[in-house]
Amino acid sequence: MGEILVIGHRNPDTDAICSAIGYAEFKRRTGMRNAVAARCGDTNDRIDFVLRTFGVPAPKFVADVSPKIQDVMRSNVFSVPPRTPLMEALALMDERNIRVLPVLDPERRCMGLLSVFKASKFFFPSHTRIFDSRRVVASVRSLTRTLQGKMLCAFEPDTDNDLVLMIGAMKAASFASRLPKYAPEKLLVVVGDREDIQLAAIEARARCVIITGGYPVSDQIRELAQSHEVSLILSPHDTTTTAMLCRSSIAVENLLRSDYLAFRPDENLAAAQRLAAASQFQAFPVIDEEKRVVGIVSKSDFLRKVERQLILVDHNELSQAVAGAEQVEIIEIIDHHRLGSFSTQQPILFRNEPVGSTSTIVADQYLTLGVELPPSIAGCLLAGLVSDTLNLTSPTTTKRDAEILGILEKLAGVNAREFIDKLFSSGSVLTSKPATQAITTDCKEYSEGSTTFSVAQIEELGFEQFWKRKHEVIQALNDYCRSRSYFFSALLVTDVVQQTSLLLLAGDQRFHDQIHYPETEPGIFQMDGIVSRKKQLLPYLTQSLKAMGPVRA
Questions:
Q1: Higher pLDDT, 550 or 438
Q2: Mind spelling out the 3-state secondary structure of 23-90?
């Protein structure tokens, strides 16, 4: 069974990270041993502070959960070197029941593919190429190896030769009359214990003579072969078997398909499957960045089910989910935001509650079911709760948040007020990150009808850092809005001390005109008392959109 990833939204905030950690631990403690906390975005200074404080590792980073080639490929690749005789390669293919065999160089780079189909065409040429059935392409050493024979004398034993097979199974006179039809350096003569044929072949200076049946060879024949520079091989097999094996001694590098189709391990499975289906090949090497073969995938492998499941926390809209979420099975959702457009093929556990944080819901499940809550996990959930509720001062805060926080303080041994001060002073994204990253650190995409927009939030101790970097932040927001073709992009910069915010808007001017808060500078609105993206800003923005009526490009 594959991993079950417990994962928050893109550009995760503290609550998304902490609730993923907490819920993955809860699922493991209640029987789901393969639950793994994951994230699809970078952590930030505040998240890192939380993880260091409670000694918890960051969730596993997963950029894309869509099925990949590596999910179905076989990593135990059977292969052969290029000089392998065809017979040995076919024996391996028969033993392992495979139809395509990669041929690899010493660095495991693929030189080409050997297929049963290509081998069969070599053994059984068409009627228009019937002479090819007598063609032997091999070295003397390869012939000896394939025959499991004995090399009695050899000249240039490792040089490949393109030979014509001639069987010495006729009268000596008939044999002698046929010899001149072929260039001697092209002749491979297979003969039994008929010394007259052996002598005729050697005297004609055939390239190689193979004596079959394991019969002894006279000293005269040996000496003549040596003096005429004719390679001499002793085969233990009968003439028919020897002739057949000679054909199969060809090195596989001579029968390769070098125009093969290969995939990368991280290639999207659905896209690769379309290419594979249109290909004449039955199997495909999987290569890494160095072109080395790390696996192989056959057409039937594409039908294998990818055992990957998701549990979404702190979001329920696919536009905010990890890339590829729509291609895998989502089995649970734990969230405290508005319901988005979402459908599943079968019923799932969907827990959505109007509380201040997803960490509150996760902690509540531990407490309700009496599951042991370790201090480190309690600390993480406390951090997620106080971060999302601004230590219970956000308008999203409920009585249940306060009750849960009191219990988490005791279990973690942490004072929430002291902790929240340290948390917000542990790092400012406007200080530590470029503007292009700062505006997307906690950014979510939303859709209302056919209109798509983004809303991001930055929480700071005062507005000093924002005013210092105002121009580059505004430019970055405008560039981001244009690059994603959003109708508008909003950025809420919140002063967590004074409980007030500034709203920055980029995008269509028609939407700017719908904002009725004081515009202190072009594109910057003063929003006193607004601190919650979820409960205050987002409803206001969606109502402003509706007030515009149908949006036309």
A1: 438
A2: HHHHHHHCCCCCEEEEECCCCCHHHHHHHHHHCCCCCEECCECCCEHHHHCECCCCCECCCCEHHHHH
